Amino acid sequence: MKKIIFSFLCWAPLAAFAQTSIPLNDLSAFDLKSNNWHIVGDVKAPLGEKNTLTSQPGTGILECRHESKEYGEKFDLFTKESYGDMDLSLDFMLGVGSNSGIYLQGRYEIQLFDSWGVKNPKYYDCGGIYQRRDTSKPDGQNQYEGYAPRFNAYKAPGLWNTMEISYQAPRFDASGKKISNAKVLFVKLNGLLIHENVELSGPTGGPVAENEVPLAPLRIQGDHGSVAFRNIVINNFNKKPGTVSDLAYKVYYGSHMHDTDLSKVKIDEQGKTGEITWEVTKEPNNYVFFINGKYHAHEDGEYTFVTQLGGHSYLKIDGKEVLPNIWMRSGDRAAKVHLTQGEHTFEIFNNKRDNWIKPALGFWSAGPGFRLTPHHSAGSVIAAKPQDPIIVSAATPTHLRSFMDWKKKPGDKNFRVVHAISIGSPEGIHYTYDLDKGAIIQAWKGDFLDATPMWDDRGDGSSKPLGSLTLFNHDLVLNAIGSTTWSDTTGSGYRPLGYDLDENDLPTFNYKIAGQKISDRIRITDGKYLDREIKITDGQSLAGRIASGDLIEQVDTHLYAVDGKKYFIRIEKGQDALILNRKELLVKPEGNVLKYAIIF
């Protein structure tokens, strides 16, 4: 064993177990029969032009420009490598009205489509699983099945979308007969789960072939419109999972401390076991157990081990503690370990003295070429009824005051916004406003809020967005012209004045800053984006910093992209805008009004 990496987190189904990034320095990873595919360094999709991409020279982005009305497989792109079970993640960008698709094994299509603003998506909208086709029947009667995404999480054309697909290939017996169908285990679009456990009875429309096979190339559709891709990462699950053997256990009954020297304590139960389970004990509480065994790694590489235990627990691999002895109410912990091919030892320790915690033991591993695999008995993790979620919907305009845990970037630590109000809409577009800053800190598409953390049991006062989240700023929007401090209210004279509701129960927020009274009106336009109108008593003395990030660039007239095209800011005509150090977008109001749109 060479190295150990500690990780204290809940594992994700698409964790990085054996990832391979497809290099986009050239087209050498693909087979292609046409000249509509290119490697470029940057790409844009103008919002006012249909099916249009513009690009700049460089590497890192795979671009397809298809402007003709000619269709056919010759315009598609195929990987040179073939795949069976796989996890795929990628970013994609579509032109206005454009259409493409990801064909798993060249046969099962996950649709890519400009579905911006579609409220009730169908199977042909972005993220849909396309219909099957029966060519023996006439048009209008020959399509069936097909699965719409649970929600439309697609962003505007010209913005990067992220898709994650987990796929299980069909299974065949020794004679080649299919014994189980292909499955889409899940699809996520911009972080929102849109499909889960969808069985595919056969190829969808437009397959490379009607037969089904264990292995085949990935295919990207290129004959229906302009599209671009980046960050293509594949986990190819084509190897045998790690296995466990030679399992033994020891049990000590009683209320022992987690660090008790058990060498001085009588062993109450011990022996061999055929499976990993908490039921090596005869009691549901006040026990300590050890389960030891051998783990066989079939090749060198990085392995991930996951445990699920309540109380104090640790995990040792080859005698080294990879998950330390800590107390947890319940839940999963994961550790990544580099293993050499061959046999390794493991030890699981659990000390449970809290009767209100249900007993459980889960033990999984993932590694080079295989998915997360359980090594415990099925009943060992079925310990307690899951918590009933408390969901707040927004069938009508809805407001909820709560704490909101927020972060500026996905990898940052949470910061608690204590005077947050979240505004939900029946259009399925929602946002959170910080009453202490006058800032829209985030917006999302999907369902409204999970208030379980706020109201379950004693609660902690917080709620969580239920959708594909776009993070903005947690800073003042307005400040005196010439001010160098935007992030907090120090010296700004900021004072919240509450909010007014219109006849549709939609709020306009009020506050004072730098001696000026402000009204801040935010509305959803065309079911697609947020329009914001900030009225200032005397607009001549204030300026707005309406976006900040790692990179801000102007991509069209009055249109600015933030953080590598995660979202757009579109300002109204007549307002003077300035990009400062490529990181801040400053706007001077026209008269006493500052107006702009947030497109995400």
Outline the structure in words:
A hairpin with a 3-residue loop joins strand 44 and strand 45. The chain has 600 residues and is mainly beta. It folds into three domains: 151 residues, Jelly Rolls; 218 residues, Exo-inulinase, domain 1 (Jelly Rolls), CATH 2.60.120.560; 209 residues, Beta-galactosidase, Chain A, domain 5, CATH 2.70.98. The protein has one helix and 46 strands. The relative contact order is 0.11. The N terminus is likely disordered. The longest helix is centred in the last third of the chain and has 4 residues.
The CATH superfamily of the largest domain turns out to be Exo-inulinase, domain 1
How confident is the prediction overall: mean pLDDT?
92
Number of strands: 46
End-to-end distance, in Å?
Answer: 46 Å
Q: What would CATH call the class of the largest domain?
A: Mainly Beta
Q: What is the share of helical residues?
A: under 10%
Q: Which oligomeric form is depicted?
A: single chain
Strand content: over 45%
Provide the structure class: mainly beta
What is the C-alpha radius of gyration, as a whole number of Å?
28 Å
CATH architecture of the largest domain: Sandwich
Instruction: Briefly note the CATH topology name of the largest domain.
Output: Jelly Rolls
